Amino acid sequence: MPAATIANLRDFTTEDTDTGAVRSVQTADLVLPESALAQIWSAQHLERLARTYWRFLSRITLGLVKVRYTQTRRFVVLIARPFDLLTFLAPEYELDADHGIVRWRIERGLLVARRGHGGHGHLQIDVHRCGSEADGLARVHLEVEVANFHPAIASRLGRRIYKATQSRLHVFITHGFLRSLARLKLAESKVGRFSDDRVQ
User: Fold this and answer.
1) Per-residue confidence at 9, pLDDT binned at 50, 70, 90?
2) With the CA atoms of 154, 50, 46 and 70 taken in that order, what torsion angle do they form, in degrees rounded to the nearest 10?
3) pTM here?
4) Helices 43-60 and 168-180, axial angle in degrees (round to 10)
5) Contact, 10 vs 29, CB < 8 A?
6) HSE of 94 in the Cβ direction (CA atoms, 13 Å)?
7) CA–CA gap between residue 140 and residue 138 (Å, rounded)
């Protein structure tokens, strides 16, 4: 499949000073041949995009961070359980002709302050078709968002420490993930929910 290019890489991170909730958004535009986009705009490939995120996280941490799967949960663990850094509910998917979202609701974890437990915050990958470009190319806007996240490190050690460590690391990893999509090599899903290519 032809390679793509990544453009307009950006970061927006804000904090609600009243509640301590963090919203962190990293965005980029993926420019690729229209024919290639037509091949991968499907529920099956949206699921594979989600798996690609977790694979990238594991690879960039040299395998120290892994993702474990059950029917109802996703566990991001340091080396092995019970060191659950983050626990997510099973992903939710939305897809139509121009827009797709995969969303994991944050349940708990060592990185989550107690007030952030219960699925009120989320991590999501949002993809939006922006239309055709010149020379048979298409543009897709990509957005990785963590919203209503309550970092445990901020509540224990302070916001400044969180911003200098975990927040910067998250942005670094997410930008790396977005850049990696230029290769258009999506990982195979571990679950295969959409193996028949129909939204369920």
Assistant:
1) very high
2) -110
3) 0.90
4) 130
5) no
6) 11
7) 7
